[in-house]
Amino acid sequence: MGSLSIWHWLIVLLVVVVVFGTKKLGNMGGDIGKAVKGFKDGVRGDDEKPPVPTQVAERTTIDGEAKEKTKF
Length: 72
Description:
mainly alpha; 2 helices; cell inner membrane; TatA/B/E; transmembrane; Sec-independent protein translocase protein TatA; protein transport
């Protein structure tokens, strides 16, 4: 038995797509991404997490001068 060529991998990929379907594969990819993010957050620990704002920031206005609109 030698190493697998590109054709072997393409056939395996085709079989996986046929068995699971593209929608289910996309969902699995999203689930794996969420799991990896959760793992990273768990490993990082509570001390290194950025602070989560508890209240929504109040609306503020910005003082400044308005310039004329230019047409592009």
